[in-house]
Specification:
seven-stranded mixed β-sheet
């Protein structure tokens, strides 16, 4: 899988941390920190790691913005295949012990590890993305109404399909991804009842590669396209790159997820087939937690949820084909208004 280049780090203390962290994940950092203060964001990636052009890369963008803007050091750490919860705990505790604050676990798989590490380091702020189970006073649960942006993706798919068949590819069969599917299917059916939605999950657990296997995504999309789907929506992390590749190969539409995948450099050769992306402002969530800790000195905690109402979710409009379709834009605007005023309640399962 693709990885962006790592930046070498100078300094004995930082080098010592790198040795400690290497036991449970490779890492990269920037080093402009100031002695005696937070070294900046400690970021631990979800499966698939940096370079997925989606979920993890959105977190990385927030990490970069925060560390650059506040003039502090940051460290981001990659996951390892087959790692345990204990490995994740060690990773988070190493970051906390080294002076990184906040420390953020990217993805629901970090829930047990964040709970344990936060209890051991009560003076450090922790964040977890996509989980809301931990109610500790030093933990920010950064979650989203993914079903809302997925509903808009469904409206888009229903008004774009010519075959009246669309596809949904979920990375892992878990409640979080069920929200994407539920919102998408509801958006499709509310818009055009005779459209068939073909849904498939790549794996039952993250460990099986559902979020980190472009080949699995490509195979699933090939099957759906072969069965008539001419718009395919993926909520599958790195695996979504395979879905986009298959869509481009067959000259049908893909709908991306989390990041604006039309504008991702690594996907440039497929961009003419990426109609839009269902956005989740993971970048903003990471940045906002960092700002609350490092600059404002008033750490966020508890549930912090992104929605259409606060700009935490939405649709990307970078593709001119999407942006300039007046009928489609009017339908999306109407749906957005309905979700915001409560006249449309989007299902989560």
């Amino acid at each position: 899988m693709r990885r962006v280049s790592r930046i070498a780090v100078a300094g004995v203390a930082t080098a010592a941390l790198a040795v400690t962290v290497s036991a449970c994940g490779s890492s990269s950092s920037s080093s402009t920190g100031k002695s005696g203060a937070s070294k900046g964001v400690g970021l631990a990636y979800d499966v698939g790691g940096k370079g997925d052009q989606s979920f993890n890369d959105a977190a990385y963008a927030g990490f970069q913005k925060a560390n650059q803007e506040f003039g502090v050091t940051g460290r981001d750490v990659e996951p390892q295949d087959g790692e345990s919860d204990a490995d994740k705990v060690q990773r988070l505790e190493t970051l906390a012990r080294a002076g990184y604050n906040p420390v953020i676990g990217v993805g629901f798989a970090y829930a047990p590890a964040v709970k344990e590490a936060a209890a051991k380091y009560p003076k450090v702020s922790f964040g977890i993305i996509d989980d809301e189970q931990d109610k500790a006073s030093n933990v920010a649960d950064m979650v989203f109404h993914e079903e809302q942006s997925s509903y808009l993706a469904g409206v888009t798919a229903a008004l774009t399909t010519k075959s009246n068949t669309v596809g949904f590819v979920g990375g892992v069969d878990v409640p979080l991804i069920h929200k994407f599917e539920a919102g998408f299917e509801q958006g499709v059916k509310d818009t055009k009842k005779n459209v068939t939605v073909k849904a498939q999950y790549l794996t039952q657990t993250p460990a099986e590669g559902g979020f980190s296997s472009p080949d699995k995504g490509e195979a699933a999309a090939e099957g759906q396209i072969g069965a008539g789907a001419d718009v395919v929506y993926a909520a599958a992390g790195l695996s979504g790159q395979g879905v986009i590749k298959a869509a481009a190969a067959h000259k049908v539409w893909a709908i991306g997820v989390d990041s604006d995948q039309y504008n991702q450099a690594a996907l440039a050769k497929y961009k003419n087939y990426i109609l839009t992306s269902a956005l989740k402002n993971v970048e903003g969530a990471v940045y906002d937690l960092a700002k609350s800790v490092i600059k404002d000195k008033k750490p966020l905690s508890g549930e912090v949820r992104g929605s259409l109402n606060n700009g935490g979710v939405g649709l990307a409009d970078s593709n001119p084909v999407f942006k300039n379709n007046a009928k489609l834009q009017a339908a999306i605007k109407k749906a957005e208004a309905g979700i915001k005023d409560g006249s449309i309640t989007v299902k989560t399962s």
